[in-house]
Amino acid sequence: MELGNNTQISEFILLGFSEKPGLQSLMFGLFLSMYLITVFGNLLIILAVSSDSHLHTPMYFFLSNLSFVDICFTSTTIPKMLWNIQTQSKGITYEGCITQMYFYILFAVVDDFLLTVMAYDRFVAICHPLHYTIIMNPQLCRLLVLVSWIMSVLNSLFQSLMVLDLPFCEDLEIPQFFCELNQVVQLACSDAFLNKMMIYFTSLLLAGGPLTGILYSYSKIVSSIHRIASAQGKYKAFSTCASHLSVISLFYCTCLGVSLSPSLTHSSSTNAVASVMYTVVTPMLNPFIYSLRNKDIKRALKAFFGTAAINGILVLSLKMCP
Asked: Could you list the pLDDT tens digit for every one of the 322 residues in the chain?
């Protein structure tokens, strides 16, 4: 890949956040804390689901997959940003930028598909409770997750290959803290009309399609809940969807904010702050949303750490015995 003047691209510049030296250490500590909370919080969800046989259900199977994807999604951007802050560097190699962009798109789309699959799971559980175990069998659950990954991989690969064909100019500054597809395409020297149309088309298809499925599922869920006679029955049915609705709202609202921020402002700091809500805050809050009011997750975590503590005491006692 070459520049417009036939010189080789070495790296892109990530403008990121404020350049004030006094804020660098503050931002490093803040984002490191958020990243660790995200990783450990989602790992706890995975451990709780895998260690408790009562949680080996479709809903928690999809939740553990979502937690894994959230860890990967955050790990594509934050470690590099922390490294740049620590080393006071803003550069990222051309190969590193394309790789980061590929995995960023991949995990973002998988996240979107999993939220849609989880909405379908709630739809079947509430609207067809008698046939739930038959419809949401283990084979279908694994197939839904597999299809989500395959479609995401193909889309991410296609978008990345299209960027590889673009020639770039001397201005290689990206007003973000990571290599975001739309921002990279805008740096191209040649006409990137085809790339931009494909971005808009795939965004509409891969975001609008799942959102339509989610809205349809919840329209049927609301209709079914409305037909339940008792108030307690309505509350119980709605409570199974409350966490998922919260995550969906957070996911799509932050996505909308990221999409609108470049058109409303040209400030790199403002664009970066909007992206933080989507790439960091949402994955960090998901474990809290799913666990704070979820008695099954709390019970599984207590059992897991209780067993771990007992095993630790037994091991220590055996070592102390003569």
From this structure: 444 443 457 788 888 776 666 677 888 899 999 999 999 999 999 998 998 888 899 999 999 999 999 999 999 999 999 998 888 888 899 899 999 999 999 999 999 999 999 999 999 999 998 999 999 999 999 999 999 999 999 999 999 999 988 888 777 888 888 898 888 888 888 777 888 888 888 888 888 899 999 999 999 998 988 888 787 877 877 777 888 888 888 888 877 766 665 554 555 566 677 778 778 888 998 888 887 767 888 888 888 777 655 555 434 444 555 5
Q: Using alpha carbons, select from 37, 58, 74 the residue that is nearest to residue 121.
A: 58
Give the pTM: 0.87
Put the strands of the sheet holding 11-14 in their side by side order: 91-93, 11-14, 173-174
What φ, ψ does residue 11 adopt, rounded to 5°?
Answer: -160, 160
CA distances from 19 to 12, 41, 90 (A): 17, 30, 10
Give phi and psi for 57, each to the nearest 5.
Answer: -125, 165
HSE toward the beta carbon, residue 137, CA cutoff 13 A:
5
